[in-house]
Amino acid sequence: MTTIITTSDVKQEAATVPVRVVDCDVHPYPRRGDLQEFLDPKIARHLRLKGEGANNGVFYDAPDFYHANAMRVDSFPDDGEFACSDPALAFQQLVLDSGSDLVILGPTSGGGGDTDEETTALAAATNAWQEARWLDSENNWHGRFYGSICANISDPERAALEIEAWAGHERFKQILIHAEPRPSWGHPKYDPIWAAAVKHNIPIACHLGRGQHNLLPMSPVGFMTYNHDFMVTYSMLAANQVMSLIFDGVFERFPTLQFLFIEHAFSWILPLMWRMDAIHAARGNETGLSKEPSQYVKDNIWFTTQPLDYPDDKLELVRALEWMEADKLLLFSSDYPHWTFDEPRWLAKHLPERMREPVMFGNATKLFGLPTEVAPLPGQVRAF
After folding, report:
1. Which of 269, 342, 346, 360 has the fewest CB atoms within 10 Å, measured from its CB?
2. Which residues form the Amidohydrolase-related domain (predicted)?
3. How far apart are CA 245 and CA 260, in angstroms?
4. Would residue 65 count as lying in a domain?
5. Cis peptide leading into residue 307 (ω within 30°)
6. What's 31's DSSP letter?
7. For the segment 239-272, what is each residue's pLDDT rounded down to a tens digit?
8. Domain presence at residue 102
């Protein structure tokens, strides 16, 4: 049985210690029935029917999926609830055992409805649930958890209203959307979301999703055959969204807008920057950009470290990180509680030494406006 550290067990000292790790990709999950309290009854009924098997499908064939649903087996609490449904266990495993000083929650329950109505309702309920179950004084007594404003990218007007409703909350640090809906993000229909983000100086974070039905990610030659090429396709999806943001003028309309791509990998961005710059130079400035395409990436776009493309020759990784100036683009993420979890200590040792502090915590504290020091916790692992 797992021993959980609670506020009664730990007395924080008055002194502070420097933040060394900010984990930018953690997925809390509601306990069974927990979201219903915050959900429109009509949508709750639809979801209950789907939970009983109606219109349900699995697109993620992770190893031993039907045993642990692609999660760390030790992240399931003893009460039988789903992985990362217990804030105390998440605090134990992420903060005390692994050394993440601050944690950005990115709930996956805030999207994925079959209709815009469902997705908008799920986003609103997930935001209220985060505040009540994870960011409250009882479960966040240690002050290490921060939340995401879930917004339905396919419903820009109502998404903007949801952002306005939570933007003043000191614990919500990013706006969380998905990349799959069409058209691409350069379309003016999304401007209300970008405008709300800029107004409140909140970064937009895009977590990979799976899409629904006709919005499942598709390659130019059709749907993929295996999960292997399905996973690789997410980087291609992100690359197309990066190009749309740049060439369709989103950063010209909103120069201070900040975008974070979560779990879309990142090693592909260097050749994409080269290619965009080369085409821009060869074709002339037909799009009316005020600077080179690669400069928008450096000024406005960020990526998380997980998944880390790890070649057999570590020097190849080091060279790629140096060439792409990773210390200016990357934020650490663990992807807890998924089976692909990256331990902070493991990730940090694979970064060039001069990049460790910016990637592991520096970029995140600046981007999200997080504290740079926290009260020490007895027994907490220090990642590096």
Report:
1. 346
2. 22-370
3. 12
4. no
5. yes
6. P
7. 999 999 999 999 999 999 999 999 999 999 999 9
8. yes
DSSP 155-166: SHHHHHHHHHHH
Give the model's pLDDT for residue 215. Answer: 64
State both tokens at 365.
Answer: 């504290």
Q: What is the pLDDT of residues 195-204, one digit of tens each?
A: 999 999 999 9
Question: How do residues 30-53 score in pLDDT, each as one tens digit?
Answer: 998 898 889 998 888 877 776 665
How far is it, in rounded angstroms, from Cα 129 to Cα 122? 10
Question: Can you give the residue range of the structural domain that contains 183?
Answer: 17-55+84-374
Cα separation of 229 and 210, whole Å?
Answer: 13
At 22, phi and psi to the nearest 5? -120, 115
Instruction: Give the DSSP letter string of 252-295.
Output: HHSTT--EEEESS-STTHHHHHHHHHHHHHHH-STT--SS-HHH
- Residue located via tokens 């979801």: 47
Asked whether residue 8 is domain-assigned, the answer is no
Any domain includes 381: no
Whether the pLDDT of residue 233 is over 90: the answer is no
Distance (Å, whole) CA 88 – CA 34:
16
Tokens of 208: 């990979």
Q: How far is CA 330 from CA 133, 259, 297, 356, in A?
A: 29, 12, 12, 10
Phi, psi angles (nearest 5°) of residue 177: -130, 175
Provide the number of structural domains found in the chain.
Answer: 1
